[in-house]
C-alpha cells in the first residue's frame, strides 16, 4: 500500500468520504499543510475525498499527494484564493490578496475544478512562495487571522492536458 493509499484510508476512517468529482470549494487555512518549497505530482487516477471542516457544517474536498515521502492533503480551491486585506481592527484597507504563479493563473482560467484537476494528472507543482496577509476570519467582521497565499509554479515538462469544452 502506498503512502497516498494509507493516508486516504486514514482520512476515510476519520470521517472523509470518496466522492465522484470535485464540486464547490472551501478555502480554509487551517486545512492547508503545504509549505513553501514543497514539490508534488498530481497523481493519475487520484481519488477525490470530502471531509467535514470541524463543526462548521461545511465540507472540504481534496486529494492526497506525496511530498518527499509524506502524505499531504491538497485542496484545489487553494489555487484560487482571493481575500480582502484588513488592518488590525478588521477594517478593509482597499487591497486584495490572491494566489499567484503559472499554475494559479492557468487554474483560474478553467471553467470547472474537476476538469482542471483531471487535466493536471501527472503534472508536478512547486509551492514557490507563501506570502502571509492579514484577513478576516470566515464569517466574522471583527476577528483577523494571518492567511498564507501561495505562489505555485510548474516543475518539469508536464503541463495540463487540453480540456475539451
The largest β sheet comes out as:
4 strands, antiparallel
Radius of gyration: 16 Å
Shape: globular
Provide the succession of SSEs: HEEEEEEEHHEE
- What low-confidence regions span 5 or more consecutive residues with pLDDT below 50? none
What is the first-to-last residue Cα distance? Answer: 36 Å
Number of domains: 1
Proportion of residues in extended strands: 35-45%
Mean pLDDT: 91
Query: Total number of β-strand segments?
Result: 9
Share in helix: 10-25%
Going by helix content, strand content and strand pairing, the class is alpha+beta
Walk across the major sheet and give the strand order.
Answer: 1-3-4-5
- Total of helices: 3
Structural notes for this entry:
The mean pLDDT is 91. This protein is 15% helix and 38% strand. It is of the alpha+beta class and 165 residues long. The protein has one domain (3-155). A four-stranded antiparallel beta sheet has the order 1-3-4-5, with helices on one face. Strands 2-8-9 form a three-stranded antiparallel beta sheet. It has helices spanning 3-13, 102-108, 113-119, and strands spanning 17-19, 39-41, 48-52, 59-67, 70-74, 82-86, 92-98, 124-136, 144-155. It has three helices and nine strands, in the order αβββββββααββ. The protein starts with a helix and ends in a 10-residue tail after the last strand. A hairpin with a 6-residue loop joins β3 (48-52) and β4.
Amino acid at each position: 500500500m502506498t503512502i497516498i493509499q494509507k493516508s486516504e484510508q486514514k482520512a476515510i476512517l476519520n470521517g472523509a468520504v470518496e466522492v465522484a468529482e470535485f464540486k464547490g470549494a472551501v478555502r480554509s487555512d487551517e486545512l492547508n499543510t503545504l509549505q513553501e518549497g514543497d514539490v508534488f505530482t498530481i497523481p493519475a487516477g487520484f481519488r477525490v475525498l470530502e471531509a467535514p471542516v470541524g463543526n462548521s457544517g461545511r465540507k472540504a474536498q481534496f486529494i492526497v499527494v506525496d511530498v518527499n515521502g509524506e502524505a499531504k492533503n491538497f485542496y484545489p480551491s487553494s489555487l484560487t484564493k482571493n481575500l480582502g486585506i484588513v488592518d488590525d481592527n478588521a477594517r478593509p484597507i482597499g487591497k486584495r490578496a490572491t494566489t499567484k504563479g503559472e499554475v494559479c493563473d492557468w487554474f483560474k482560467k478553467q471553467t470547472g475544478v474537476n476538469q482542471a484537476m483531471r487535466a493536471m494528472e501527472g503534472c508536478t507543482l512547486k509551492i514557490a512562495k507563501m506570502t502571509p496577509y492579514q484577513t478576516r476570519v470566515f464569517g466574522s467582521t471583527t476577528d483577523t487571522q494571518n492567511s498564507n497565499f501561495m505562489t505555485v509554479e510548474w516543475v518539469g515538462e508536464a503541463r495540463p492536458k487540453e480540456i475539451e469544452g
